[in-house]
Specification:
11 strands, alpha/beta
């Protein structure tokens, strides 16, 4: 099992010094990855940096930690432009990009970006096919319902020959999402309770086999908060998820109304113990 952390940009807001210190500390402590969530526009006014841009900045002062924008609401974005941006992140980080995607549930965001909310699932399936081609081929010839590319490429290609693409959706994914994970994803962001995990995992595995894929190629990641209402449970939750075969844990210092310095202190406090739990 590997352990990473969600960069608490929602609470650090425009304190770029604190965001940098947190990312550098995560790298120094030996965490496997940094995740940054995605919202482009919303009515609530919640503060959130654009994840690809922010992680390109983070790439400049970190050395080994994986950089994971997730989950990107892919159907709300232009496929070709997004492929170019993701490839650039991988180049600037010297091959440290991992991608998380989903379709989201914010109708207002889709409307503001000029995309159709109701066809987002079908569009996501098509986008995944095109995205993988753009990230791996010098020239792409693709004709779909939403995108057409004629013998063109995004040169330069990413450093990695294959950028891992993960999927995140509802806590209990429906049949269409299960099939999307089974057919296209390298990993699944687990949002369900442990009690529901085995059943969902079994459905994904069966769908993967039906698609002629090895179910073991689809990895898993679960989130564990180390502050807030479940603070006292975080150690047992990590060990429980490890017993269930989860591949990655994403720690969260969000949700406890911490100051930037308290976020840093909490990370220093919990990471050594978290890494000890899995060794």
């Amino acid at each position: 099992m590997k352990i990473g952390v969600s960069l608490p940009v929602r609470e650090m807001k425009n304190d770029l010094g604190a965001i940098r210190a947190y990312a550098e500390l995560a790298d120094e402590l030996g965490l496997s990855h940094l995740r940054v969530p995605d919202t482009i526009i919303n009515k609530s006014g919640g503060h959130l940096h654009e994840p690809l841009t922010l992680l390109a900045w983070v790439a400049a002062f970190t050395n080994r930690i994986e950089l994971c924008p997730s989950v990107i609401v892919l159907p709300a974005r232009q496929t070709v432009l997004f492929a170019k941006q993701l490839a650039e992140l991988d180049i600037l980080s010297n091959g440290r990009a991992r991608l998380g995607i989903g379709v989201g549930s914010n109708k207002d965001q889709y409307a503001a970006l000029g995309q159709d909310f109701h066809s987002r699932g079908a569009r996501c399936d098509e986008q995944l096919l095109l995205l993988k081609s753009l990230l791996t081929q010098d020239k792409v010839d693709f004709t779909g319902r939403w995108d057409t590319v004629e013998e063109s490429g995004i040169n330069p290609l990413p450093v990695q020959s294959h950028i891992s693409i993960w999927y995140g959706g509802a806590s209990i994914p429906g049949a269409k999402v299960i099939n999307r994970i089974a057919n296209y994803a390298d990993g699944w962001f687990v949002l369900c309770n442990p009690e529901d995990y085995d059943d969902i995992r079994s459905k994904i595995d069966n769908a993967a086999e039906a698609a002629s894929r090895d179910p073991k190629a689809i990895q898993t990641e679960a989130g564990v908060a180390v502050v807030g209402p479940r603070e006292s449970e975080w150690q047992s939750r990590i060990t429980n998820w490890e017993k269930m075969g989860i591949d990655y844990i994403c720690l969260r210092t969000l949700g406890g109304d911490l100051t930037p310095q308290q976020h840093l202190d909490k990370l220093k406090e919990v990471v050594p113990e978290a890494l000890e739990l899995i060794t």
